[in-house]
Automatic annotation (TrEMBL):
InterPro entries reported for this sequence: EamA_dom, EmrE-like
Descriptive protein name: Permease of the drug/metabolite transporter (DMT) superfamily
Organism: Papillibacter cinnamivorans DSM 12816
Keywords from the UniProt entry: Membrane, Transmembrane, Transmembrane helix
Family: Belongs to the EamA transporter family.
Length: 287
């Protein structure tokens, strides 16, 4: 593993730790999904503006796609968190490898290997278990939003890779602006209270703003599928924080589905590393 790839992985791990705070903070707030999504994105946009200094108004095709994918991801994820369990919201979002693998093949010409296909099948099995839980508890609306966030998250990882040499932080800035504008008509009356304001600031500045600054630095060093794989700490920690601080205990189908998805993602990476190690050893022996 080269230095740049190691650097990218470390940045992704830090990013996933910050992302994992979303569920517990959103559950603690009295705001609805559009209010959380819009105000969080507005604060995050201001945070990222302080980093990029000056917005770039040059929009390439891939930047527009990244902006749209980003805004839909944070929008659907916030709505999902307010309408289903934190575990289902984050785990269904992590169906992203399915879409990043397909879109990575279409746009980046990244090969889909046997282990990718196996992991995709296993992820779909995990999704079926999560959806079963959502249907039985009446959380189908939140689960549907979470599934859509998985599609857009997978697309985001690919389009951010396409923008890696064109300051991807700009895409995140404009994506947050777009999310705020899209949610503005649906916010209604916002309840102002100390807990809501504190949670909104932490969500906007750290959980979303700083995390995506780190994320945009990481995408230059890893593949589209690895972006999802090495962010695996988020779906593990997110429901744990909610369970500890909110008492929301995942149901048995959620635990089974989540374990299946996480095992599929981690197993795919172990399989890939072994394949690359054997291939490198074979090339050395051939020389």
């Amino acid at each position: 593993m080269g230095y740049e790839r190691r650097r990218g992985i470390v940045l992704l791990v830090l990013t996933s730790a910050l992302w994992s705070m979303a569920g517990v903070l959103m559950k603690y707030m009295s705001w609805n999904g559009p209010q959380v999504a819009g105000i969080r994105s507005l604060i995050a946009a201001l945070t990222i503006l302080a980093y990029i200094k000056k917005p770039n108004i040059h929009f390439t095709k891939w930047r527009v796609m990244a902006i749209l994918s980003y805004s839909l991801t944070v929008m659907f994820f916030s709505i999902a968190n307010k309408n289903t369990t934190a575990a289902n919201a984050i785990l269904l979002q992590y169906t992203g490898p399915i879409y990043s693998a397909i879109l990575g093949w279409v746009f980046l010409r990244e090969k889909i290997h046997r282990w990718d296909v196996i992991s995709i099948i296993a992820i779909l099995a995990g999704v079926a278990l999560l959806v079963k839980e959502g249907l039985s508890t009446g959380n189908w609306l939140g689960d549907a939003a979470a599934l859509f966030s998985g599609v857009t998250f997978g697309a985001l990882s690919v389009f951010m890779r396409m923008e890696k040499d064109n300051d991807p932080a700009q895409s995140v800035f404009w994506g947050n602006i777009l999310c705020f504008l899209l949610m503005l008509p649906f916010m209604g009356r916002v309840e102002i209270s100390a807990p809501n304001i504190i949670c909104a600031l932490v969500l906007g500045v750290f959980q979303l703003g700083l995390s995506y600054i780190l994320f945009t630095k990481a995408v230059a060093y890893v593949s589209a599928l690895e972006i999802v794989i090495f962010s695996i700490g988020e779906p593990i920690l997110n429901p744990v924080w909610v369970m500890l601080f909110q008492g929301e205990i995942p149901g048995p189908w959620t635990v089974a589905g989540g374990a299946t998805i996480i095992a599929a993602v981690v197993g795919r990476e172990i399989w890939r590393n072994r394949h690359e190690t054997r291939k490198a050893q074979a090339e050395i022996q051939a020389v």
